[in-house]
Design brief:
Layout: E1 5-9, H1 13-25, E2 29-33, H2 36-45, E3 50-54, E4 56-57, E5 60-61, H3 62-71, E6 79-83, H4 92-108, E7 115-122, E8 127-133, H5 140-143, H6 165-175
Parallel strand pairs: 1-2, 1-3, 3-6, 6-7
Antiparallel strand pairs: 4-5, 7-8
Length: 188
């Protein structure tokens, strides 16, 4: 089995550490960089399946770094961008599992050259995390049951799995006094 190698480019140490630990716990090979320069050094030495980029870095722009990576012919997978940040009082293991379930779903249902965007917004009373991809969407009649146990979309049926990941995710989010829902956008 081929090892999935990821690079996290993030100057916020706590976010970088938390995300890398979560991915390592899932047995992914993860490298971390805090600047564009560090990222370029890693990118010259390694091929990555996924690069998670911060948009604003101390020595440059994450989007410029992404463009340089693509222009060098190094793009071997999906693009993944995170914007915003927030602090939550939560069970980080369980909530991390919930986010990982949604992100895995996005990865599984997005083309090899697709994109996954994560937007994090916070206010005094709440945190909103929006995960968006260009995977083509879900038939409207299947959206209502998306978070029910053992219910899988026709697209997911060929990819394996038991159909419980999003049901577990919903339970975790609700135990944290949150809500989760899915909707189709123009791209997916």
């Amino acid at each position: 089995m081929m090892e999935t190698r990821m690079l996290i480019v993030e100057d916020d140490y706590f976010l970088q550490d938390g995300l890398s630990q979560l991915l390592r716990d899932e047995k992914y090979c993860v490298d971390c960089a805090g600047t564009c320069h560090e990222a370029k050094v890693f990118m010259e030495k390694n091929d990555y399946h996924l690069i998670i980029l911060d948009i604003t870095l101390p020595d440059g722009n994450g989007l410029d770094l992404c463009a340089a990576w693509r222009n060098a012919g190094k793009n071997t997978g999906k693009s993944f961008n995170i914007s915003g940040n927030a602090f939550l009082r939560c069970d980080s293991d369980w909530l991390g599992e919930a986010f990982l379930n949604v992100l895995k779903n996005s990865c599984e249902h997005t083309q090899d050259d697709g994109k996954i965007l994560v937007f994090i917004e916070s206010s005094e009373a709440s945190v909103t995390v929006t995960i968006e991809d260009n995977g083509g969407g879900i038939p409207k009649e299947q959206l209502r049951g998306l978070f029910h146990r053992f219910l899988r979309s026709y697209r997911a049926a060929s990819k394996g799995g038991a159909g419980i990941g999003l049901a577990i995710t919903k339970t975790i989010v609700e135990k944290h006094h949150g809500t989760i829902y899915a909707e189709n956008t123009a791209e997916g």
